[in-house]
Amino acid sequence: DAKTTQPNSMESNEEEPVHLPCNHSTISGTDYIHWYRQLPSQGPEYVIHGLTSNVNNRMASLAIAEDRKSSTLILHRATLRDAAVYYCILRPSSNSGYALNFGKGTSLLVTP
Amino acid sequence: SQTIHQWPATLVQPVGSPLSLECTVEGTSNPNLYWYRQAAGRGLQLLFYSVGIGQISSEVPQNLSASRPQDRQFILSSKKLLLSDSGFYLCAWSVRLGFYSNQPQHFGDGTRLSIL
What we know:
The complex is a heterodimer.
Chain A: E1 9-13, E2 18-23, E3 31-38, E4 45-50, E5 55-56, E6 61-64, E7 70-75, E8 84-92, E9 106-111
Chain B: E1 3-7, E2 10-13, E3 19-26, E4 32-38, E5 44-52, E6 55-58, E7 65-70, E8 73-78, E9 87-94, E10 106-107, E11 111-115
Parallel strand pairs in B: 2-11
Antiparallel strand pairs in B: 1-3, 3-8, 4-5, 4-9, 5-6, 7-8, 9-10, 9-11
């Protein structure tokens, strides 16, 4: 699978927007960009995914660069509950394995 | 809506004892099912996945086995636990759409297993 690069940690104030970046310069044309997050002592939680166009759901927005070599997960108003490790993962659309390859992710700290 | 249940939440077992962790999914049919392990301070490692009843694929050689006796039930077992089996065990499911593997996976709350 193509590799992703994320900052180790980020900090945000509560109720402010958060932009979590992810670089994936070796992404292939059929790779989907997935985001998951893991709260302390819990299983990972699916957040959002996309291919080329920006995506919005109730949890977040995903902004994908035109060349697809980077993407940004946007939390519009951070809450204390959003403090978690956020993982950016590339998933091929064809059958090339079922494992989700979680890297180290970005640890998001939200302060009141 | 779909839900996934794992139990127990925590488990302390002596070395050499057997293990059985159960996972069930509700609100969906014919899901793909997965068992992952997360060792302390490390990433998730896929142990097993299943695309149907009785169909189990192993990703890594190990001391564990998995079974899928019913469509929405996935069981992780061991006959004799090792110290290295300690970790956080997570069950997940995804929609099965042919060979496409880009469907999101939805995780349970996990079982924290400590081997003494």
